[in-house]
Amino acid sequence: VHGGTFVMSSIWLPLESNPEVLNSFSSSMGLDVSQFAFCDVLSTEEWAFEMVPRPCLAVLMLFPINDATEEHRHQEQQRIAEQGQVVSPSVRYIKQNIGNACGTIGILHAIANNYQLYPALIRDNTFLSKFLNATAGMSAEQAAQVLESQSELEELHATAATSSENQTTASLDVNSHFIAFVTIDGHLYELDGRKQTPINHGPCSTDELLPKACGVVREFMARDPTELRFTILALAAAQ
Questions:
Q1: φ, ψ at 190 (rounded to 5°)
Q2: ∠ CA 40-27-138 to the nearest 5 degrees?
Q3: Please, how many CA atoms are within 13 Å of residue 168, restricted to the half-sphere of its CB?
């Protein structure tokens, strides 16, 4: 439900992976939840996809960090270093330098990579509109540094993390992590602020985003088949 255990510049309280918490927090940042909102994806199977409103703009996954996920992350990084990958310059990517901010980073990745196609996503003169405009064209690390300086966002996050809807532990030491999946220029990208770059998972149309993202989720699950703590949410048309 949570954040990631690695050395960070500061540490926030973790967010719970439920639509009520994410929608309340996202709305306070500037997401127009009357147009688009987060909803549960109940399974990686096809029957669950029909329950998600269209269009589906992004998928968030919460998963436990453990030896299997870390081993895969290092192998993946080595493979990309040796073989390279194509990453569209249109992808908006933010490094995570704040502990337990992965939910916030995931939300920002979901919205930042869609709001130009869907201007109705965000309200004018809000944190989101100002941050996304201010960081346009920046590198992932530059955007992260701007994010770290945003006391307004830290206050909004603290409000969400201490709300009655947020049922996560008050402990700062958590070992679960949010990532986002989006479709940019005809490819599926995994956006994880802990990684060196976005991960290109191959060709993907906007209509294929949900099933193909869930295909990657199944790969995460297969690496640790006894682990049950996976949660999937979609940013989709409001119901």
A1: -95, 125
A2: 100
A3: 27
